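User: Can you help me understand a structure? I only have the sequence.
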Amino acid sequence: MRIGIGYDVHKLVAERLLILGGVTVPFDKGLQGHSDADVLVHAIMDALLGAASLGDIGKFFPDTDDRYKNANSLHLLATVKQALQASNFTVVNIDSIIVAQKPKLADFLPKMAQNISEVLDISTTVVNVKATTEEYLGFTGNGEGIAAHAVCLLENERL
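Assistant: Let's start by predicting it. Here is the structure, written out as tokens:
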């Protein structure tokens, strides 16, 4: 069994879609980044890669590579899944949290978990997605950006 932790943050900017967990969330701003800047999926990918000792998303998908410009992060997650499978890892569970003052995300969380579970080919019962505010404190509380944290447990019966 291996545990991994992931974290990501992106700045909120005008004229970008807000994509979280593969869901386009209606909002007047989106996240700035080389890909679609999906902080939730990025944090989950980092947790998975870390647990498997495979590096991080910067190693897999460098922001200097134009192949990943505006990339759909769920497609990148599928690549991480392939790397896990090649190393004989299976996902036991994922727990994650999005940190954003606005917009309210509760209605979108089930679809985010479903998207992630479908890409990883695991049950939605082992993918947990939560959201919280920061009570108007810090950069997320001030609406300057959105962050996400993720923890995962992997299993590899060959280790």
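Now, to help you interpret it: The radius of gyration is 15 Å. Residues 20 and 38 are 5 Å apart (CA to CA). Let me know which part you'd like to focus on.
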